[in-house]
Design brief:
2 domains; 10 helices; 478 residues; single chain; eight-stranded mixed sheet
Length: 478
């Protein structure tokens, strides 16, 4: 494959200023049970080659399924034709990068595809039964997912590398129904559960069956729980909910193509301008955010992005002030950065790389554990898992709904509350952050369905954080 891709980019270099080619082979397996029976099974393999060329300032892209030489050469011809058909544009240089060479694989102790399907299904059925054991649950769901992506990359600048990423995880959900009211609890999170860069050990360490009774009990309890009160109050966010808050209000806002208006017709823009680094305050002095493509086990981790740029840790917010952007080689050069942020990612061989998040993480603070933070919070709310979200196309005005909230009273976690929601403006909300828990409380949550681009692409990202506290937040009923 390496030789084929090198031949393609060498041929392209005779007609284009730059070219790269990616062969992506993907294997995926998914199993899900619903109320004690197999509900979903998927096993698929796919591979293909995507070829990208730049003629002047115009890009051309074409892809082909499989890796036949004749078909790939035809795809190269189509990519060149697309680039030539583009309106004339000034072709500024791409940000420089040392050509990628070598091989890399993510950690994998036990290949998830070597584990028999019946063993995986038995684990899911055991978990499913544990959800339903106490009664009161209308729908019980348990699921498993494994995926491996092997990417071979070559460019006309001399890059030639291959990397293999294995992902594995799963989750559960319990739905309780009473008349027209329904309540759901998920573990470890909604939006696809928890998936990590890991082998089968990543699924097993979730211990889904052990958590099933608690999740079912909470779903049933929510039907009778009091509604979340409305008003301005102290809010602690943790886990998935804090990760999603980072994702939507900071991560997307610092994607440089959005900042430059390239995504305005679909994904939207940003509250930040390209000259805002070092001056735009978007949080309190306790808010420090880093985009780190080397976070262990996270879904935005790699050795090279889909332009062959080495993984980096990028400062995004420092002391509450914007410190950097997520960028590609083209967008970095456009605003005068010396190097790409290594954030060009594509969802597969048949999509062009876009500026996408790596692992956008809230750095830990010094507020101790979650229990310590609750004890230091007289009264307020705790929300850990998400049920709904909405944010405007500039990433400024938002509203989030949680699956459940816990009342904090007298420094202790109290009763369960149903249908919590909160809303705000991004700078004011992050500006109200007055505590972030310490490093031992820091963990990574995954999001497997981040959408962007036309045609659409879904990529997987993770967000690391420790529980954080926010003052004077507008809380209401979703």
């Amino acid at each position: 494959m390496r030789e084929l891709l090198l031949d393609l980019v060498d041929a392209a270099a005779r007609h284009a200023d730059y070219a790269d080619a990616r062969h992506v082979a993907t294997r995926r397996e998914r199993l899900a049970t619903r109320n004690g029976v197999l509900d979903d099974v998927l096993a698929e393999d796919s591979d293909g080659v995507g070829i990208r060329v730049r003629v002047g300032g115009a890009w051309g892209f074409a892809a082909v399924r499989g890796s036949g030489r004749a078909e790939c050469e035809a795809a190269l011809g189509r990519a060149l034709a697309v680039a030539r058909a583009q309106p004339a544009a000034a072709g500024g240089p791409l940000a420089p990068e040392t050509p990628a060479e070598g091989a890399w694989s993510s950690p994998c102790e036990r290949d998830p595809f070597d584990v028999p399907l019946d063993r995986k299904l038995a684990t899911l059925l055991e978990t499913d039964a544990a959800i339903r054991a106490g009664g009161g649950i209308a729908v019980a769901i348990a699921h498993f997912e494994g995926r491996r992506i092997v990417t071979t990359f070559a460019s006309s600048e001399g890059a030639a590398c291959v990397q293999s990423v294995t992902e594995c995880g799963g989750g559960i959900a319990a739905l309780a129904v009473d008349g027209e009211d329904s309540q759901i609890r998920s573990y470890p999170a909604s939006h696809g559960g928890q998936v990590d860069q890991a082998g089968y050990e990543g699924f097993m360490r979730l211990r889904l069956a052990d958590h099933a009774p608690r999740i079912a009990e909470e779903a049933a309890a929510l039907l009778k729980a009091p509604a979340c009160p409305a008003g301005r109050m102290t809010l602690i966010l943790a886990g998935e909910q804090l990760g999603l808050q980072i994702h939507e209000s900071i991560g997307h806002a610092v994607e440089l193509d959005r900042v430059l208006g390239r995504e305005i017709s679909y994904a939207g823009g940003s509250y930040a301008g390209p000259d805002a680094v070092g001056s735009l305050r978007i949080g309190s002095p306790l808010v420090n955010v880093t985009a780190d493509a080397s976070t262990p086990g996270a879904l935005g981790t790699f050795r090279w992005d889909d332009e062959g740029v080495e993984a980096q840790a990028l400062p995004i917010v420092r002391g509450g002030v914007l410190a950097g952007f997520l960028s590609s080689r083209e967008s970095a050069a456009e605003i005068g950065l010396g190097r790409s942020g290594g954030c060009a990612r594509a969802s597969g061989f048949d999509r062009q790389p876009l500026v996408r998040m790596t692992n956008v993480n809230l750095d830990p603070g010094d507020a101790g554990s979650l229990d310590d933070l609750i004890a230091a919070t007289g009264e307020g709310l705790l929300i850990e898992s998400n049920r709904s979200w909405s944010i405007d196309d500039r990433r400024l005005h938002f509203q989030f709904g949680g699956e459940a909230a816990w009342e904090i009273r007298g420094g202790e976690r109290g009763r369960l509350l149903r249908n919590p929601s909160y809303s705000g403006l991004t700078p004011q909300f992050w500006g109200s952050c007055d505590a972030v828990c310490s490093a031992p409380a820091w963990g990574v949550t995954s999001l497997i369905d981040c959408g962007k681009g036309e045609p659409g692409q879904f990529v997987r990202v993770s967000h690391g954080s420790a529980p954080a506290r926010f003052q004077d937040v507008e809380v209401g009923v979703a």
